[in-house]
Automatic annotation (TrEMBL):
Alphabetical list of InterPro entries matching this protein: DUF38/FTH_CAE_spp (IPR002900), F-box_dom (IPR001810), FB224 (IPR040161), Mos1_HTH (IPR041426)
Biological processes annotated in GO: innate immune response
Protein's name according to its UniProt entry: F-box domain-containing protein
Annotated SMART domains: FBOX (SM00256)
CDD domains for the chain: F-box_CeFBXA-like (cd22150)
Sequence ranges assigned to domain F-box in this UniProt record: 412-459
PANTHER family, alphabetized: DUF38 DOMAIN-CONTAINING PROTEIN-RELATED (PTHR23015:SF4), UNCHARACTERIZED C.ELEGANS PROTEIN (PTHR23015)
Pfam families: F-box, FTH, HTH_48
Top-level lineage group: Eukaryota
């Protein structure tokens, strides 16, 4: 029988609303559902039913209908596993507030944190977890902006006198989990205009920062974060926090002081001594980007020369120090730019005559530079230069590319003239895409690059009607037509934040350029991919992608692509079969197929392929073609959507799975046909009814000559089987 959830009276609903204490409709709805079920289990369909019912404010509930006993259709552990796969961080955080059991399971098994931003005010704490914004305060703060529009649908008000502790406890969830690897972790102030408010903000910051420091110091592991930013004047505390961040992941470090007009907090601690200790830490030597916009301090510039970029403030600097820094940076191929601000103004006429500036810097004036004190120095054996710009209270050094066509300097060497050790350094510090291009220069260079281990792990192609995103590992490239307007990266997912935009000139082919870069990666036999994903929500763009990829892979002949996981969104069977045969059987462990694809004419070719037979995991969503049960039983895990499934198919599936040595779990959903009769399924499959504390729809089958059992859950058009 179909499950019929009972109505819930308004009085019960109001009681739940009061107990949960959440403020947005979405979070109230989640809290209500979980309060309703307590620590029992619930299917996703039932969860969605109650969630949207609570979310709909116009839904009138019958107050005269008494609460009825609810049939629980799922065991607790399975519910948690399904919940973590269906819902994201924004939905899981409220579940932690329901009970200790939920909190322990979510904290130990689910690690969705990638970005945490904290801004502390005089009577509130703003915390941003990924895309979820929470405002902790003893009263509701309605007018608040923090660098972007504060959308009502994404904010949560958590009121109470203990708002500081509640805010820290929420942040501590991420900091205590060793599995979390944050992209960004930012701690900052947000003081109001009044002097009294600023002093209260300082007290709140001191409380929060100290709790963070103590938590990190007392943990047995170093916390993993890529970009760390803190606004603080307590340098010993900053040093303590930095020392407990993982040097294997930290790449960007920003520290700034608290300065709002005439209101400034003084530095706590011996700044020079603290900085001397800081530069000796392994975290410092791992940094690629450093920004210290603080009260100017004396720190030698040579401590920053291994960074790609840095921006600092110092007490003073001399021309001789700038020259030494420039000479050192000439030998650093990874360097891009730096800016150094100082309290002391440069009086160029008194320090050194204007006519001798270029000679001292060993540079020359370029007509493209507007600043009269900008001098360019050529980096030997490259097409790059360092542009040194002196200003009144600062100087900058930028790495720029020179235009060879406008140069008369015949001393510039070609790439092939470089010594082998110089080429090795350049190759070592080149990005993956650049290494693949360098392989085309000469046979000797190709042999040199191929002796190194290329670090390609994944390629994701996301095709749109007027542009293509290609992800090489964590590096995103957008290929655009010259007529397309700029892509607003700020409105997209945070993973696209550092996307490189490649715009074609008039007459240029952006599609051809994108697939030329893909061809360099796919045709290199040294590459070992963890994942290749082809994705497009536009059918025409998707067809173009598969046609281009087929043209790239066909010339490979018998050589196969080494990839572990292949994900594809296709609309036609031939599209899938144009790519799959070119992937190495046995190496390919996981196949994922999305979209409403009709495989009627191609299903036999698919299940007879070596790639399918040697795969271990398969996911197929909304497939419109019947799939023989026999072709699934060799898999370790599979999750498929098929047209229909009968009880006899379940019997056949059971007989094969009990003898499979690798089977772990499977899910089968049908979108047509009759719903299962649990009594009939139990009778035909010879299943046992579990103990009373388990749901009635969970049936058990003891595997002969084994201690293992099959847990079979049946609900309408859905079947889940797990080997336990």
């Amino acid at each position: 029988m179909d499950f019929q959830p009972p109505d819930i009276p308004d009085v019960i609903r109001d009681h739940i609303l009061h107990e949960v204490g959440l403020r947005t409709p979405e979070l109230q709805a989640y809290g209500n559902v979980l309060r309703l079920y307590g620590e029992n289990s619930i299917t996703k369909n039932d969860f969605d039913y109650w969630y949207y019912r609570f979310l709909d404010d116009n839904d009138e509930m019958d107050v005269e209908v008494a609460p009825q006993a609810i049939e629980i259709n799922q065991n607790y552990d399975l519910f948690i596993r399904m919940l973590s796969s269906y819902y994201q961080l924004r939905q899981l955080l409220p579940l932690r507030q329901i009970c200790r059991r939920f909190r322990d399971v979510i904290d130990s098994n689910y690690t969705p944190f990638t970005d945490i931003h904290v801004a502390i005010g005089h009577d509130y704490v703003y915390v941003k977890f990924n895309d979820m914004r929470s405002l902790y305060s003893h009263k509701e703060v309605r007018e608040y902006k923090y660098g972007h529009k504060y959308h009502d649908e994404n904010k949560t008000f958590i009121e109470g006198e203990g708002y500081l502790t509640k805010a820290f406890d929420a942040v501590a969830v991420a900091l205590r989990n060793q599995q979390n690897i944050l992209r960004t972790f930012r701690l900052s102030w947000h003081p109001r205009a009044k002097q009294t408010n600023r002093e209260q903000t300082a007290e709140n910051v001191e409380f929060f920062y100290e709790r963070v420091r103590l938590l990190l110091v007392n943990q047995p592991f170093q916390f993993a974060v890529r970009d760390f930013s803190i606004q603080d004047t307590n340098l010993p505390r900053v040093l303590a926090i930095l020392q407990h961040l993982s040097p294997e992941t930290i790449r960007k470090f920003e520290i700034s002081d608290v300065n709002y007009g005439s209101w400034r907090l003084g530095v706590i601690g011996d700044a020079e001594q603290i900085m001397e200790q800081m530069v000796e830490t392994p975290q410092w030597t791992s940094l690629s980007y450093i920004q210290i916009i603080h009260t100017p301090i004396n720190i030698p510039l040579h401590n920053f020369v291994y960074c790609i970029e840095f921006e600092i403030a110092v007490e003073s600097v001399t021309i001789e120090e700038i020259v030494r820094l420039k000479n050192t940076l000439l030998e650093r191929p990874r360097f891009r730019r730096c800016k150094v601000m100082t309290r002391t103004e440069f009086n160029f006429d008194e320090i050194i005559p204007f006519r001798n500036m270029g000679a001292l810097l060993n540079g020359y004036r370029h007509p493209a530079d507007n600043c009269p004190y900008t001098y360019r120095c050529t980096i030997p054996y490259t097409i790059f230069q360092l542009a040194v710009t002196l200003r009144d209270v600062s100087f900058e050094i930028n790495r720029v590319q020179q235009k060879l066509s406008n140069m008369t300097d015949n001393s510039v060497k070609s790439f092939s003239d470089m010594p082998t050790d110089v080429i090795e350094v350049i190759v070592e510090h080149s990005e993956l895409k650049e290494q693949l291009i360098l392989r085309k220069v000469s046979r000797s260079l190709r042999d040199l690059i191929d002796t190194q281990k290329l670090d390609y792990k994944q390629i994701i192609v996301d095709a749109r009607p007027d542009h293509i995103f290609v992800q090489f590992n964590e590096h995103f490239v957008a290929y655009l037509d010259h007529q397309k307007l700029d892509i607003d990266i700020s409105q997209m997912s945070s993973i696209y934040k550092y996307t490189t935009i490649i715009r074609m000139p008039p007459g240029g082919d952006w599609i051809q350029t994108a697939f030329a870069d893909l061809e360099l990666a796919l045709k290199n036999p040294k590459n070992r991919f963890q994942m290749i994903r082809i994705h497009s929500f536009d059918d025409d763009a998707g067809k173009t992608v598969y046609k281009k990829l087929e043209n790239i892979l066909k010339p490979l002949g018998d050589r196969k692509i080494h990839v572990t996981r292949f994900c594809a969104r296709v609309v036609e069977g031939p599209q899938l079969l144009s790519i799959l045969p070119h992937l190495q059987p046995g190496i390919l462990k996981s196949i994922e197929i999305e979209h409403n694809v009709d495989l009627a004419e191609n299903i036999d070719f698919l299940i007879d392929s070596q790639q399918w037979k040697k795969a271990q995991d398969v996911e197929m969503y909304a497939i419109e073609t019947p799939i023989p049960i026999e072709c699934l039983v060799h898999l370790r895990r599979f999750d498929v959507w098929i047209e229909s499934i009968e009880v006899q198919d379940l019997l056949k599936l059971r007989d094969n799975l009990i003898i499979s040595p690798i089977f772990e779990s499977c899910s089968i959903r049908s979108y047509s046909g009759s719903a299962f009769d649990i009594v009939e399924v139990q009778k035909i499959l010879g299943l046992k009814q579990p103990s009373s504390e388990k749901p009635q729809s969970m049936l058990l089958y003891s595997i002969p000559n084994s201690d293992a059992i099959l847990e079979i859950y049946v609900d309408n058009h859905y079947v889940y089987i797990e080997k336990a």
